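The authors assume throughout that readers already know how a fold can be written as discrete tokens. What matters is that the chain and its backbone geometry are given together, residue for residue. A single example would do more here than another paragraph of explanation. For illustration, here is how one protein appears when written out as sequence plus structure tokens.
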Amino acid sequence: MLRRTLLVIPTLGSLLGLTLVVLPIVNIPSPAPAPVRISSQAVTSPNEVVASGWSKTVPGNANLVGVRWSGDPATTFTVQMRDQAGRWSNGPAVGIPDFGPDPGSPEARRRRPGNVSEPVWVGDAKAVRIRVANGFAQAVDVERVQVPRASSPTGIAGAAAPQPGIITRAQWGADESLRLANCPNGPDYDSRVVLAIVHHTGGSNNYGPGDSPAIMRGLYAYATQTLQYCDMHYNFLVDKYGQVFEGRYGGIAAAVHGAHSIGFNTNTTGIATIGNFQTAAAPPAMVSALERLIAWKFDVHGVDPTRPLTYVTISGNDKFAPGTALTVPPVIGHQDTWFTDCPGQFLEPLLPQIRVAAGTIMAANRTWGGWNPEGVTLPGAPAVASWAPNRLDVFATDSGGSLVHTAWDGQAWSPGWEDLAHPQTGPLASAPAAMSWGPNRLDVFASAPDRSLLHLWWDGARWSQWENLGGQLSSAPTVSTWGPNRLDVFARAPSGALQHMFYDGQWSSWETLDGGVVGAPAAVAWGPGRIDVFVRGTDNRLYQQWYDGRWVGWESLGGTLTAAPTAASWGPDRIDVFVRGTDQATWHRWWNGAQWQGFESLGGVLTTNPTAISKSWNDIDVFVRGTDNHLWRRTWG
């Protein structure tokens, strides 16, 4: 959690972390590139059956080819190509595509009957030779794609660039009428991106940097005209020179639903490397571009590239049934989802390195922004929860002791404060605490006039009634969560000790954890079964106690506090603690996985305790009430 200042995020609406820089790598001719031409040529009679060993030479110019046939869908073909000098070279074996839309989707239903192979880039071939490698086939046709060249690129996006330059669809010459002819309603979107799936396109590795735009146009035409997909199947493509291309239409920052991994297209981004990395090593420039692209995409969607996640298949495929829950790292290869060698034996082993490098890039491009007024009048100390990367729910008590609520939806604050009323027992006797353990779930706690614990929750549809959980509190409560349906509540007991109760399907009784506590505690969980609690001691220093199967502590972390602390965690073994110092400014101390760092001053003038929250990986928002009684926020990320 060491702070490395490389990039200041100037506004709330900016993308988190890395800044997208689109480099004008390709000169776009005017007018646009000539249309891609696709022709189909029969190479057997309709009833002729051919088996392993059969071959046919097909003369004529081609840049990309595919095979269409009837019969055994498991049949594979090899492709050879002849250049202008008459030299033959070997290409890969191809069969039905291992990518594609999800079963049962409208895009999947568009496919024509029969079998169509994946496409093969053959360069500037003057003839191709199709051979049956395994199986049998009849009514064999060759799909021949000719891609007119655009102007040569003026430069190459090399691996030295700190962020990826993304060559847009307009720059590589996408004919948007092709996708609109198939799917006039435009792209489909998912709610978010949680997983990156890495592919290779197969085909030849023998291409120059100026060939890549033509390869893009050929793959796009084949996908829309031969396979009848809505669009290019991948979200992004990266060539061996480190050039990054926008794939499927819909916005490079958006969660565009692709057709790259059957059964795994929901909430994922598909990134294809151009070439065959089953037979050749992955070039360093390409790997570096992958790292930078994944770092940027994950930054936008708040994904920690180093932290495994649980992915649940929706439509499923032949390898994984619908509803299968898989614990996977957030960057995987296509072979992890399907029966395929994609992205190749030379690229798949590099994925752990790519995940670590992406995390390093993301962390290196974080810094603290300045204090920003949110335009919200704050009646008391705020409590903040977040159930989605762009969602913030703020709670406070007004002058009459009622709980009030407002929310940020990623664009604007809701108008005014929603009055959630006070329970029938009377006005609240403390500031609230709030937490979310899942999407559209909020739990709010406060103390009643008799100092018992009160609980209110939102289930995505409506607010509950207040429930009384008993106990005797001599401070405001605090709450943490380390998993679905798990809540841990802490407060100061009348004796001055720390007390704790938890919910894991039912509420426990209160337990006493000892220690002399001044004011409300702070609690944070950075992993299952792990809780860290922070308090202001009777000597006004910061103290920590933690639980990892048993309670351990107390440990003094120093400082001089004038109010209760708050804490947040954005990843495993990462903790950020914020306190109000004797100068009424916000001070910050953090655990980086190995040792405590700080204190550092974040400035500001506070009139209440601060509160902090992490909405996503390596992202922190600190909230205070300023001297103008408005909500102020300072952001890391």
DSSP finds six helices and 40 strands in the chain. Residues 1-30, 152-163 have pLDDT under 50 and may be disordered. Residues 68 and 105 are 22 Å apart (CA to CA).
